[in-house]
Amino acid sequence: MADESQDIPSTDSLLNETPCQETESQSGSGLREYHGIKYDPNDERFRGLSKRAMKRLLKEESWEANREERNAKLKEKRKRKTAERLEKIQQGLIEPRGPKRLKPDEQEPSKVKVVFDCAFTSYMSEKEMKSTQSQLVRCYSGNTKAKHPMPMILTSYDAELRKLFEQKSPGHERWKGVSFVEEPYIDKYSKDELIYLSADSDNVIQTLDEDKVYIIGAIVDKNRHKNLCNDKANQQGIKTGQLPIGEYIKMASRKVLTVNQVYEIMLKWLEYRDWEKAFMDVIPKRKLEGSQWLNENKEDEGDEEEDKEASGKEQQQEEQQDSKADPTPQENEKEEEKEKEEKMTDKEEEEKASQQQL
Questions:
Q1: Is 326 part of the annotated catalytic residue set?
Q2: Which domains are present in the chain?
Q3: Which of 53, 60, 87, 127 sits 20 to 30 Å CA-CA off 241?
């Protein structure tokens, strides 16, 4: 019979084992401690196990022994994260997580067409160009989640903007419902079809007409070039129009929205057929600071419903998480990675919010 001592790890060999040096401690009784679990290296249950198998067994025992404490900490951590995120949403620092992407059979495409006039690259700095590209990406993202997506046509799509898309969104050429064309919109459509959207227009749009093509100026310029889009349309003999925001909100500043906000408001109107509800869904609270809803009761109701909905969703997610079985070490690692990504996303949203001009 072989000597059993050859198969059992000695005390000295365990001391010299680098991965365990930080978690093992030796006591005077000959027992060792591994993550709060005391054990005897010569215990019968370790007979015939390799060092690696012995460590794995101890790790499993440690994991099981700390189950209740770990679950309590995890539950508290989730509650804290939920409360922090809700507070940031209510303060307008970040936006609530949007709806998930809809499947094609869940969408009913609209006949309303939207052109993005990309002929303003010479007016923008490199940073503003990147912001414009990012806003166009968000328009596409909103389209994938909309019940009634609208065809997107990017006109005057030049080499500079193409380079940005290739760098930041390499799969953009496969986007469904999106066209990238080099020629200007004036060469693709008749003037009677076109309506250029501008906050400086004197004409207020009450409905979106399926027979019209609406133009959004794809530009981020921090209001340096006032009346740029409106003047361009007038020079070309094209009708202009603005969304009826002034009929529902008394803005503290000019009624200038980002490219993606204008597009998302249009998507929401197609869903609700209600401009007020569309504005409430899309315009961030931080952008409405100092502004006043003309229907104040509607504002209060909207805020209450929004808070209840956000709180209810977060609470439901929390209950679902708590009802799950105790996560494995691998699931715990995934949870930590997901948390890091969420923190980075929240941080980016806060930075964008602080940089955007009211």
A1: no
A2: 44-91 (no CATH), 113-293 (3.40.1280.30)
A3: 127
